Structures are given as C-alpha cells and as structure tokens.
Amino acid sequence: MSSPGMISGTAVAPGLAMGPVYVVRATPDVVPSWSLRAEEVEGEIARLHEAIAAVTGALEARRRRVAEQTNEQDAEIFAVHRTILEDPNALDRVVQAIRDDRLNAEVCVQRLIEHLEQVMGGLDGDSALRYGADVSEPWCAVLEELSSSERRGVMAREERVVLAAADLTPHVVTYLDRERVLAILTETGGRFSHGGVLARSLGFPCVAAVPNLMSRLEKGMRVIVDGDRGTVQLGPDEGAVDQFLERRRRHVARREALAVHAALPSHTSDGRPFALQTNVEGLRDVETFDVGHTDGVGLFRTEFLYMERSEFPSEEEQYRVYRRLLELLEGRPVTVRTLDIGGDKRLPYFDTPDEPNPQLGWRGLRIALQWADLLRVQLRAALRASAHGDLRLLLPMVSSLDEVRETKRIFEGVRDQLTDQGYEIAEDVPVGIMVEVPSVLFVLPEILEEVDFVSVGTNDMVQYLLAADRDNPWVAHLYDPYHPAVLRALQEVAEASRRAGKPCSVCGEMAGDYATALVLLGLGYSGVSMAPNFVGEVKYALRQVTLADARELARQALREESAVGVRALLEEARRRLHDSLTGEETSTS
Ligand code: PEP
Ligand code: MG
Question: Given CB 3.0 to 4.6 Å as the disulfide criterion, which of 219, 234, 506, 517 pairs with 456?
Fold first, then answer.
C-alpha cells in the first residue's frame, strides 16, 4: 500500500537504501537552474559574492605569475578582468535578478553574460568583438566557480547521500565517490540508459522516471529508496523506517546465502559449462568483487576511462590500465571494447555535434573509423597489454561487414607496426563484434567468417529492434527485452554462431537476470557477462538446472506470442529458483 510520501518510478537497479538526499543540479555544459525560497535569497547573494571573491583572487594570482614569468604588459589583461568584476552596475544586475526572480546565482550570471555579449555584439569592428569576449570572460569564470563550489561543498562533507537529479546520465552517477553514494534517483531516464547501466554496475539502488521528483525534494530530506519496487518514500515515519530495516535485513541474509555459491564453478547441475563473466567500467570496479567468482571480464566499457579525464588518455596510460586489469584477472579473459562514445556518452573535451537523433547518430565504431588515429592509439595500447594475459577485442555499434573489414585492416596495420617496433604481443588476440544493430542479424554468417566471437549488446539491440529509445521514458513501455522479436533475434545469433563454430555471449543487462540467463543457455549461448552484483544469483540459478531444463525453458519462451507470456513464464521460473534459495518473496525485474 502506498503512503502520502510515497512516489513511484522505474526500478533501474535493485537494492534498498535510506539517507539524506543531495540534489545534483546539472550535467556539464548546462547552466543549472532552480528556484529559491524567500529565506534562501540572501544566502544565494552571499554565495555569489564568495564566487566573485574567489575569481578575483585567482585573477590577481595569475596577474602576478604572468608578470613575473613574462612581462607586466601581458599581465595587464588580468587586472582588466578584475576591474570588470568590480563594475557595480553588472553586480547590481545579477543581485537584482536573484532577488526579483528568486533564481539561483548561476542562471542570473548567465543572463548577465548574454546581455554583455549582446551589447558588445551590437558594436562595430574587431576590437569591439574582442572587447566583448573580454568583458564576459571573467563572468564566465564566476559561473564556473559557482557550479564547482556547490560540488566542493558536498565533497567536503563526510556523510553518505542519495543523489537526485533531473537526468540519469553517467555524469550524475559518478558525481561523488562510490563510498559516498547510497542510491540514485532521477526524474527521467530508464533502466537501460547508460547512467542506469552504470548504477547497476556500481551496485547503487536506482529509481528513475520519478514524476516531478525535483520539485518534491528538499535539501537534506531523508528518503527511502527501493530499487526493487521502483519506489521512493519521502520523509519516512517511524513505521516506514522499521519496515525498511526489516527488509534490508532479509536482503543481507539473501546476499550472504548467495555468496556461498559464488566461488563454485559455473556449470549446470549436469556439468555443462556456461561462462559467467563480469562487465566493468574501470580498474576500480575490480576491487568490488572477488575475481575468483567470475570467469573473466566479458565487457570492459573503456569509454569510462576516457570520460573521467580532461583529455584523451595516452597510449601509455591505456596500456597500463589494460595490463593491470589483465594482471588482476589472473589469467582469465579480459574483453576490451573499443571506445563506444556518442549517444548519451559524451567526452567533455571532444566536441561532438548536437544531433537531432543521437542514438541513430555518430556513435561507437562510426566515430572510431572516422577518427582512426583515436582507434589506433587504443589498439596499440591493447595489443601491447595482450602480452600480459588473455586479452580480447570487442567492436561496438557494428552495422556492416565493411566496417568489420576496415577495422580489421587497421588492427593488422597496428599489429605489424608494433611487431616492427619490437613490442611483444600475444600471438592470438581474438576480435569480436557486438551484435546491437539489427542489420548485423542479416549478415552475421559473413561477419562470423571475419571475427572470432560475438557478444550481443541487448541494451542497444532492443532499442533498435523495437524503435524505442533506451533513454526515453515516453517509450519505456515499448522498450521490452521480452518482446518475442528480441528472443527470436537472440536465437538467430545463437544459431548463426553455432553454424560458424564461434562462441556467442550476451553482455547487455538481460544477462544479469537469472531466469533470462537460463533461456540464453538453452538457446545455445556459451556464456553471459553482467554487472558484478548479479553473478552470485545467476550462478546459483545455473547450478540448480540441467542443460535439458534450460533448453525446455528456452523452447517455451520462444513459443510465447507476446512479452506478457514470456514475462509470466520467466517470473514462474524465477519464483521456483528463488524459493529454493531462501523461501523469501521474489522481486520482479
Ligand atoms: C549493450 O548495448 O547492451 C551494451 C552492453 O553496451 P552499452 O550498454 O554500453 O551500450
Ligand atoms: Mg551498446
């Protein structure tokens, strides 16, 4: 039963958490905007003054440094910038806007910048233009200072928080150190948004698409997040807190029961092996799980290595990361996916266009082939690391045989170059593709002649197959991994791989659901790769069934005509497996 403070959204990542909420105001490049209550106005003006003082101090320090290192004349510009910030008219304009419109300082400073640029743009001549840029520049620095001071404030405190934001982006999920985050809440987004994928991977309970979330939250308000049911309890009373504590106790008991199975080999009860691998986004992820419980890394989303920096990582830096990952995995395979940016994964330092339809746009391998030097650097790093373990390469967003051939040509070129330069590299570095774009389903036999394995990226494949953006809450009801078309496409991939004698796996989020994983086994997949949190559960399920059981489940699933039927079938399978573990209530997924 729901209570007045209870709101619902989409269950993105499982788990329960309780704590104070911290609102992440914006994504990079977007000026954050929020309304102020009357009693917050003076505090906001004080925050503006602090930011101006910080920028003034920094300008003076730069003036002195440049004067010492070059000459007084070059340093003069910083003194001019300081004077601009001291202009009482400009300051009044911002303060007045904060008071009258009750808006945060960032928005009011942004309006001033636009005003200054408009005024200067109206003047004629190059020098006026230059002056226009100069006049707004120190205010841009104030804007930046305001945004980062917000963040520094929360960074400085020790408490753990529930992060809340408008959009479910990777930026929001990685806003604070992992240890500081209890859960994630967002107003938009869905289970398969990249932010959602990341939240699952980091083990944060996450609820997205919560209507009017931002207007219902207050700073520091205590909330209970239920990532299994997709609910948020605002300001819970004593009874709700007791219930939360009881449910969390059961969750912990279940996790402990699963942990007993986690170290056992990954095979069915009749001994059929099925690789259970882990998806990682960086080296830090490996610290959160026991490598002895996994059969390797089935997907290393290397774009996060690129996203956490202020410039492209060098060959050397990437080499060190890949090599370290191979060492940490102690001989188990590590599948390095080449850079998969675009869509909702953007690099702050790489100016990609604002596309009308980014999911159908400049993404993944398309960027890598156009910016082939980027790809070459990454391939050089990966191939050099291959001397230290079992490294495999995985290509994202492939849509044609030509792309595969072109990438392989680049790959061979890099390998020859490294060999000529005397680097030691593994004799065999398998190359595989992600099956994500539906066109690949129809040319898979030809592509399989060129590659060593395939891995289905169901997060993307579902969105492209069903024409339902994985990030768009308006079509979230249409984005359905249990649509019979998805199961049939998965069957096609398994069949084509079997005919070609090449292994196939799934590394999208479907792989982390234990009932679905059994269907994949039944369809003929050789393994799955998932966020570390789910390995225990999937391994437990796998060890309870025979290969014949899994095949029968797959047969039944394929016979269903609608997602409703598939869902009911898998729900039943889940219940049987779950009850045999703890006898607890089953959470739906
Ligand atoms: C996928 O699309 O299923 C996948 C694993 O890749 P990503 O989620 O990073 O797009
Ligand atoms: Mg993908």
Answer: 506
Q: Is a pLDDT exceeding 70 seen at residue 383?
A: yes
Reduce the DSSP state of residue 181 to 3 states and report it: strand
Q: How far apart are CA 51 and CA 49, in angstroms?
A: 5
**206 annotated active-site:** no
From residue 34, give the alpha-carbon distance in Å to each of 11, 37, 39, 172, 319: 26, 10, 14, 17, 43
In whole angstroms, give the CA distance from residue 241 to residue 17.
11
With vertex at residue 103, the alpha carbon angle to CA 98 and CA 105, rounded to the nearest 5 degrees, is 65
Higher pLDDT, 369 or 167: 369
Which range among 17-21, 27-31, 35-39, 359-363 shows the weakest confidence by mean pLDDT?
27-31
Q: pLDDT, tens digit, for every residue of 242-274?
A: 999 999 998 888 888 888 888 899 999 999 999
Alpha-carbon gap, residue 225 to 230, rounded angstroms: 8
Give the ligand 1 atom nearest the CA of 197.
8
Of the candidate CATH numbers 3.40.190.10, 3.40.50.2000, 2.30.29.30, 3.50.30.10, the domain formed by 6-33+158-251 belongs to 3.50.30.10
- Which of 542, 544, 546 has the alpha carbon at shortest distance from 527? 542
Whether residue 267 lies in the annotated active site: no
Ligand 1 pocket residue status of 363, Cβ below 6 Å: no
